[in-house]
Amino acid sequence: MDRFSLRSLSKLDARKQYHIKISNWFAALGNLSDGKDINRAWENIKENIKTSAKESLGLQELKHRDPWCDEECLGFLDQRNHAKMRWLQDPQQSNLYNLKNVRREASKHFSNKKKEYLKAKIDELERK
């Protein structure tokens, strides 16, 4: 998931550039006026806004607050988010069961990673 650098909007040049790009996209979109497929129109609008923001604002660099969080943890987070989205889109009992299992596994993994990290820090401090 991309996060845009919204702090760039406080700069007048970046704000004007973003405004111009969005205005141009919507002007071009108004000329097409394909009212038959609303889903396609929405996807087009969404992609145009994302593209304009990426070009004019740039992406925000994500900070890792937890030093024990690695790529494996991010994989668990992604897996948990996908399971939640599946359940929200289709709230069947099987999707809820899957979500609970994924949450349990992710929590277990995070807890173990944090314990390992803290144990290593304690050992490091005791050696000094």
Q: Can you summarize the main beta sheet?
A: none
Our estimate of the beta-strand percent is under 5%
Mean pLDDT figure = 85
Q: Considering DSSP H and I runs of 4 or more, what fraction of the residues is helical?
A: over 70%
Instruction: Return the string of H and E elements.
Output: HHHH
Number of strand segments = 0
Overall tally of structural domains: 2
Q: Would you identify the regions where 5 or more consecutive residues have pLDDT less than 50?
A: none
For the record, give the distance between the C-alpha atoms at the N and C termini, rounded to a whole number.
41 Å
Tell me the structural class.
Answer: mainly alpha
Shape estimate: flat
What's the tally of helices?
4
Over the alpha carbons, how many angstroms does the gyration radius reach?
22 Å
